[in-house]
Design brief:
The complex is a heterodimer of chains A (about 525) and B (about 725).
Chain A: H1 2-11, H2 14-44, E1 52-56, E2 61-72, E3 75-81, H3 85-88, E4 92-96, E5 100-104, E6 109-114, E7 120-128, H4 139-183, H5 189-221, E8 224-228, E9 234-238, E10 242-246, H6 253-269, E11 272-273, E12 278-279, H7 282-313, H8 318-330, H9 335-358, H10 373-397, H11 401-409, H12 414-443, H13 446-449, H14 478-487, H15 492-531
Antiparallel strand pairs in A: 1-2, 1-5, 2-3, 3-4, 6-7, 6-10, 7-8, 8-9, 11-12
Chain B: H1 3-42, E1 50-58, E2 66-71, E3 77-82, E4 86-91, E5 99-102, E6 111-118, E7 121-126, E8 131-142, E9 148-160, E10 169-177, E11 182-189, E12 194-203, E13 209-218, E14 225-230, E15 236-241, E16 245-250, E17 256-262, E18 268-273, E19 279-284, E20 289-296, E21 304-312, E22 319-324, E23 330-335, E24 340-344, E25 350-354, E26 358-363, E27 369-374, E28 378-385, H2 393-397, E29 412-413, E30 424-425, H3 428-459, H4 462-477, H5 480-497, H6 499-523, H7 527-530, H8 537-563, H9 568-576, H10 585-609, H11 613-621, H12 626-655, H13 658-663, H14 681-688, H15 697-732
Antiparallel strand pairs in B: 1-28, 2-3, 3-4, 4-5, 6-7, 7-8, 8-9, 10-11, 11-12, 12-13, 14-15, 15-16, 16-17, 18-19, 19-20, 20-21, 22-23, 23-24, 24-25, 26-27, 27-28, 29-30
Helix pairs in contact in B: 1-15, 3-10, 3-12, 4-10, 5-6, 5-10, 6-8, 10-12, 11-12, 12-15, 14-15
Classes of the chains: A alpha+beta (about 525), B alpha+beta (about 725).
């Protein structure tokens, strides 16, 4: 009896059921561990961690935060972020737990975020504020008051920098105009001289502003604070070089939350610093959104048009079947193939022709004949057109034919049926296609790398200077940002937190888009279930 | 109803039909047409070379009197040097000017031998044994309007007096190195011996010049010398004899005969160094043309022996002249009947034949122009269209014996610091890398995804299906750059440290699982266990898997110490000779697997749950268990769908770029080991295209890579698509 039971258990294949359950489990473990790693590392980046002062057996001491622990054959060791790249050369160090003599959490430990050389860890010892009027008091509140008082001054500097940019744009515009006259062979002094004069005036104005700005910056630079690091070395730091200063060990949870939020704000709306490893992601976020936007303008109408044609107008037959297979196939073509096509066709083909026809005066410097946001968007448009076609077709195909027939029976023409009945009904499905296409576009990096994405774009593709949309400009992109700072940056260890933040952001955008597409689709399914 | 509005409606409908039809067809065909453009870019790679005759200029006097000809890069000027030492510049353009320079400075001596030292520098050996070095250059000049004129110029930069030897000199080769202040001269004497003369000019800090001279002699060997060549650095001398022997001397510090090879059974009639001075081109009396280079005869020895590497197309008669291109590894050769051949050494491609009879030939510096002199004394200037001589099907896919290699290899190395580098464009290692990465990824992904889908579609409760399917779809949308970053910067270092634990978990995971299943079976006799609802097995087995993996993690260091002497990668290298790379196939299998699993899962799950329920119900009614039903009924009928899912996943893995770019190390090696990396077609495109100049060979070869990728994915996807369509029709019957 016992033997039979055993055989039956195996013969019925219960272990195989368990095996397939294990396969599903593994998939789930993989997925969740990926998500957890990204979330854990991404979310914690901006939370100020406590600064610990380690005094070692050999007399050296370190002030910093513990990044990770590692079990070595020699014993446990900690990786510390000790910052102060200008003093020590490296931001990170390893210490053996066995060598620690004393470990403390000094209340007065200060973390400075700076515009250069990364963070600074140390203690505030003295202030030197010749040009700022700040009440006397204990150093730390006085330091914070000084930083606050510096705010309006820095705003002034920013303002005049903006003026300089505008002036520079006007000078470049004049240069372009002069180049155009030269190119046409029009060397008439009557037309050129006024332009030259205007340029001279602008240059004069420019130089005056630069001199003013330098004077202002010099006075501001004189305001310094003296810091002492863990080993007692003194370092004088100009207040203008400081982005943000805080004492993590003395902060309450609310203060930490405030800091976290201010850093999030910086992430979304500020420019990157320190070769992209610090500061904000605004240009990359903006570039990604604008890329998707331009891509959608091209891809969606064309895709929907083709989808409607294939489902509603084309006569079913061998050719349509062939086209349908081809379109499905195109969705599976590697994105790098689209990229290389975009390079050959858009950049070197159409772009060079545009340059020769409209911008010959700047050649051999290319205007459109090099990678730019327009070409990258068009390439992504091609990549996503098949997705839109397929989803439009499927959405139209899911509508019961009875609806079409009743519309015709009421005397509606085919176009009226399409516009009034079919498209509204198919719109959730088509929307799903749009969102999936956008999610795909947001996550693609390979084709962008060869059609115009750069690690640091000097200006956004959209700004206040005529003609506002600069489609020939190169742009930044979140996905490429990850690749670039994760793999091309000289200090990968220091860049890692930023990579995790960008990853979390990109993943968040894409997952949000995809899940909304899925929810939309499920709603649509229910709707049709009722119509049937 | 208003008939007018009805008519308007109808017109509008017709218009809309027209617009939609034309627009739809246009979009679809333009999207498909882009792929033909990629193919079009690659086509010039395989085009044969062609010449176009631009000018014909009859010369005065006897054709044999002319010793050298040449032309500039823009095909606007040519020159001739005749036996009297007269240099003639002839302008080809209407507005150009002819010029004449007497290199013999008025004396009546004749030129005995003329040789090229380097591009634009010629050595003239006079009858008295003296040598003049003549630099000829063509300088482009631009006027205010940007119009270009080429100004030819010639200058005698050095005059060497006759050496005081007794025997007459039949020919001379000169080498110079301006940086080192070296000038050297190798003479072949009519007594069949060589003499070598060197002069070092050094300048000290105060500008004082010191001159050192030295001379050596090589005694006449046993056979008559018929040709000789000198490397560009003047360190190695090659000679060929009338008896077909190849000789090589090192003439650097001291003179050593390093090779004597009875290479041919006939006379060697011409030889020259191929561009880069690594290979020697040799022509013989019967018209064979081959290239030779020094190869280490075994892995241990350092001495290099001359070996024949490439055989080029043979001539009909004795090879009289071989001219090496100064841009690439191609060779122009003339035979005694005056036929001209253009061949490329690496690809062994015969590019061009011109029936002569030609006496002399010269190429312009950039290789775009060629000038020939025929026996009738007519100079012809040709434009040469020869953009990609180094590419042939053999260099793209086969083994090629490259310079500095000990044996023929598949190699990809598109660029190097030096100009005279032999570009290696073998796609085979890239194809190999692509297939290797895909293969490991599929081994990992296919079983997981398929059985996961089986479980979700047939064993899990329906509401679970509604949660897991969207979850998997979200997983499919994770950008590959995110996965690439994670596996390269987080997983790869982790696995490198825990490699033994990972290997151990291949043992522990199935082991722990089997143990659990056995326990479960034993537990069947308790009612508590029996009453657990089926459908949640995957949750119950989850802690078992995590636990086994953790056990492997704990035992990893122990096993590494016991079996692998504490360091697995060192153990691996010592015992198998293959290295452990941090970015290896295991990492890629995880990364690519992660992108492919959701695709296979979705398609497989769709086809599994579309199996008509009456089939499964019938099976169950006949007493089959749930696994038996799935195994015998569901899987066979859904297998085409699963197969299609696998193929679509395969197509995706083949073309995936970011993950492999970030996590493979991108070294184009051919090694099946799971512990090292590779370079795939797609990553190769991403790595190399920013460096590739438009329309260069590299650019077109990269497009060829794209075409290959396209073709591979197209075949796989179309196959999958056809299968799915058939399956859909089949189930439509139920």
């Amino acid at each position: 009896m016992k033997k039979i039971v055993k055989n039956k258990y195996w013969r019925d294949g219960e272990p195989f059921v368990w095996g397939s359950a294990a396969a599903l489990s593994l998939i789930l473990i993989l997925t969740f561990s990926l998500l957890i790693v990204i979330f854990k590392n991404g979310i914690a980046v901006y939370w100020p961690s406590p600064q610990l002062l380690f005094e070692m057996e050999d007399g050296s001491s370190y002030l910093g935060e513990v990044v990770q622990d590692e079990e070595q054959p020699t014993g446990l060791r900690h990786q510390l972020k000790i910052a102060n790249r200008d003093l020590y050369g490296l931001d990170f160090t390893w210490i053996d737990a066995a060598d620690i003599k004393n470990k403390s959490r000094p209340e007065g430990a200060v973390v400075l975020e700076r515009y250069g050389y990364g963070n600074f860890h140390g203690f505030l010892s003295a202030l030197n504020l010749p040009s700022l009027v700040v009440d006397h008091g204990p150093p730390w509140p006085r330091f914070q008051a000084a930083l606050a008082a510096l705010g309006p001054e820095i705003a002034k500097v920013k303002e005049s920098k903006g003026e300089l940019r505008a002036l520079n744009h006007r000078i470049v515009g004049l240069d372009k105009k002069i180049a155009q006259y030269h190119h046409r062979g029009d060397d008439d002094p009557a037309t050129l001289l006024p332009l030259q004069d205007e340029k001279g005036l602008l240059h004069h104005e420019f130089d005056r502003l630069v001199a003013d700005l330098e004077a202002l910056e010099t006075t501001l630079h004189q305001n310094t604070a003296l810091f002492t690091d863990a080993t007692g070395r003194q370092q004088s730091i100009a207040l203008t070089a400081i982005v943000r200063a805080y004492q993590p060990n003395a902060m309450s949870v609310f203060a930490k939350t405030g800091l976290y939020l201010s850093k999030l704000w910086e992430l979304f709306f500020a420019e990157p610093r320190e070769s992209n490893t610090e500061g904000g992601l605004f240009p990359a976020i903006f570039g990604t959104i604008m890329l998707i936007f331009i891509m959608s303008i091209f891809s969606f109408p064309l895709g929907v048009l083709s989808g409607i044609y294939l489902r509603e107008y084309a006569k079913e037959g061998f050719l349509v079947r062939l086209v349908r297979i081809a379109v499905n196939n195109l969705a599976g073509i590697p994105s790098i193939v689209y990229g290389i096509f975009g390079l050959a066709f858009f950049v070197y083909g159409i772009g060079s022709s545009i340059d020769q026809a409209f911008f010959p005066e700047y050649l051999p410097t290319p205007t459109f004949g090099t990678g730019g946001i327009l070409w990258a968007s068009l390439t992504l448009g091609l990549l996503t057109v098949p997705v839109v076609i397929v989803s439009t077709e499927e959405a139209l195909g899911a509508i019961p034919s009875g609806l079409r027939e009743s519309s015709y029976a009421l005397g509606a023409t085919k176009f009226q049926t399409l516009v009034r009945i079919l498209l509204p009904m198919a719109s959730p499905g088509i929307m799903t296609g749009f969102i999936l296409a956008m999610a795909r576009a947001a996550g693609e990096v390979a084709p962008l790398m060869i059609t115009g994405v750069v690690k640091l774009a000097p200006s956004l593709p959209l700004d206040g200077n005529f003609p506002f949309f600069h489609l020939d400009r190169k742009f930044m992109h979140l996905g490429f940002h990850i690749y670039d700072i994760g793999f091309q940056s000289p200090n990968v260890e220091a860049a890692k937190p930023m990579v995790f933040v960008s990853t979390l952001l990109l993943l968040g955008i894409v997952v949000l888009m995809t899940s909304s597409a899925i929810i939309l689709r499920n709603k649509m399914k229910k709707k049709y279930a009722i119509t049937h | 109803m208003d008939p007018r509005s009805l008519r308007r409606n109808k017109q509008f409908d017709t218009l809309a039909r027209y617009v939609i039809t034309v627009g739809g067809i246009a979009v679809i065909f333009s999207v498909i047409a882009i792929l033909f453009l990629i193919v079009k870019v690659t086509l010039p790679l395989f085009k044969p070379s062609s010449v176009e005759e631009l000018y014909t200029l009859p010369q005065q006097g006897q054709a044999e009197n002319i010793l050298a000809i040449g032309l500039d890069d823009y095909q606007e000027n040519i020159f001739t040097i005749n036996r009297q030492g007269h240099l003639h510049f002839q302008a080809l353009r209407e507005d150009g000017q002819d010029a004449f320079v007497d290199l013999s400075s008025g004396s009546a001596k004749l030129v005995r031998h003329l040789a090229t030292v380097e591009p634009g520098l010629f050595s003239l050996l006079w009858e008295d044994g003296g040598v003049s070095l003549v630099a000829i250059d063509f300088r482009p000049q631009f006027d205010q309007h940007g119009k270009r004129t080429i100004v030819p110029g010639a200058e005698i930069i050095e005059e060497l007096p006759p050496p005081g030897t007794s025997s007459a000199i039949t020919s001379t080769l000169i080498r110079q190195d301006e940086e080192e202040g070296l000038l050297m001269r190798v003479n072949l004497h009519d007594d069949n011996g060589f003499s070598i003369w060197r002069r070092f000019k050094t300048e000290d800090l105060f500008g004082d010049e010191t001159v050192e001279e030295s001379s050596n002699v090589i005694a006449p060997p046993f056979e008559k010398m018929s040709a000789f060549a000198l490397t560009i650095d003047g360190q190695t001398l090659f000679a060929g004899t009338a008896g077909g022997t190849l000789l090589r001397w090192d003439i650097g510090e001291e003179i050593v005969l390093t090779d004597t090879i009875p290479a041919f059974k006939e006379a060697i009639t011409a030889m020259t160094m191929v561009f880069g001075s690594q290979s020697l081109a040799v022509g013989t009396e019967s018209g064979t043309l081959s290239t030779w280079m020094g190869v280490r005869d075994s892995n241990v020895s350092e001495t290099k022996k001359l070996r024949k590497i490439h055989d080029l197309k043979s001539h009909g008669g004795a090879v009289s002249t071989i001219l090496a291109s100064q841009r690439d590894k191609s060779l122009v050769s003339l035979d005694s009947q005056g036929a001209l051949h253009l061949d490329h050494m690496t690809s062994e491609r015969h590019l061009l034949s011109l029936q002569g009879p030609h006496l002399l030939v010269a190429k312009s510096g950039r290789g775009s122009g060629m000038v020939t002199l025929d026996q009738g004394g007519v100079l012809r200037v040709h434009a040469l269209h020869n953009p990609h001589p180094e590419v042939s099907l053999r260099t793209l896919f086969g083994k090629v014996w490259y310079e500095n290699y000990d044996s023929p290899e598949y190699a990809w190395q598109s660029s190097s610091a030096s100009d005279d580098f032999e570009a290696k464009f073998s796609i085979t290692p890239l194809l190999f890398g692509t297939i290797k990465g895909t293969l490991y990824a599929m081994i990992f992904a296919l079983p997981l995804a398929t059985f996961g889908a089986v479980y979700v579609s047939h064993f899990a409760p329906p509401h679970l299906q509604r949660i897991i399917k969207p979850l998997v779809e979200v997983m499919a949308s994770v950008p590959t750059v995110v996965i690439g970053f994670l596996i390269a910067l987080v997983l790869a270092p982790f696995i490198e440290a825990q490699i033994v634990a990972l290997l151990l978990s291949f043992l522990f995971l199935p082991g722990g699982f089997l143990l659990f299943v056995l326990c479960w079976q034993y537990g069947q006799r308790f009612t508590v266990v029996r009453q657990l609802r089926p459908g949640y097995e995957f949750i119950m087995v989850l802690p078992v898997l995590v636990g086994s993996a953790y056990l492997a993690y704990l035992f990893g260091p122990l096993v590494e110490n016991l079996l692998f002497d504490g360091n697995f990668s060192q153990f691996l290298f010592q015992n198998t000779g293959s290295r452990y790379d941090q970015r290896n196939c295991i990492i890629i299998a995880f990364g690519l697997g992660f992108t492919v699993i959701p695709i296979i899962f979705s398609i497989a799950e769709d086809s599994l749950s579309n199996v008509p329920p009456n089939l499964t119900a019938a099976s169950m009614a006949l007493g089959a268990s749930r696994w038996q039903t799935v195994w015998r009924v569901v899987l066979p009928s859904a297998s085409p769908g699963i197969f299609a899912g696998g193929m679509i996943g395969l197509g995706r893995a083949v073309g995936e770029t970011m993950i492999v770019l970030m996590a493979t190390g991108n070294t184009p090696i051919m090694d099946l080991s799971i512990f090292n990396g590779m370079r795939t077609l797609s990553a190769n495109i991403a790595v190399e295209i920013p460096e590739a100049p438009v329309d260069s060979t590299l650019y077109r070869v990269l497009f060829l890579c794209a075409v290959l990728l396209f073709v591979m994915t197209f075949i796989v996807n179309t196959g999958a698509e056809l299968i799915r369509e058939r399956l859909r029709k089949k189930y439509a019957q139920y």
